[in-house]
C-alpha cells in the first residue's frame, strides 16, 4: 500500500513537471537539429542515464554470480570440515623459543653484515 501511494505521488509530480515544461526547444547535435519539447529532452536524458546505470549494475551482478559459482565449486571440492584434521596450535612456550631463536639469527646476521 505504501509503494502504491509513493508511486501515485511520483506520477503526479511527473505530470506537473511535464505540463509546466511543454515549451519547444531547439536541439543541436553535430550536424543534426530538431525542435523538441523540453520535457521530452529531459526525460530522454534521465532514461539514458538510468539505462546506463542498469547496464553497469547488471554487469556487476553477473560478475558477482560468476564469482559465487566459482567459490561454490571450490568449497565443494574441499574435504568436509568434519573429516579435516584438527589444527595444531603451538603452545606459548614454543612460540617464545621460536621467536627468540629467530631474533638471535637476525642479530647474528646483522652483526656479520656490519663487519
From TrEMBL:
Keywords linked to the UniProt accession: Cell membrane, Membrane, Transmembrane, Transmembrane helix
Protein name: Lipopolysaccharide assembly protein A domain-containing protein
Spans traversing the lipid bilayer: 38-58
PANTHER family the UniProt entry points to: MEMBRANE PROTEIN, MEMBRANE PROTEIN-RELATED
Start and end residues of each stretch annotated as Disordered: 73-115
High-level lineage: Bacteria, Bacillati, Bacillota, Clostridia, Eubacteriales
Domain Lipopolysaccharide assembly protein A: from-to ranges: 20-71
Organism name: Dehalobacter restrictus (strain DSM 9455 / PER-K23)
InterPro entries, alphabetized: LapA_dom
Domain of life: Bacteria
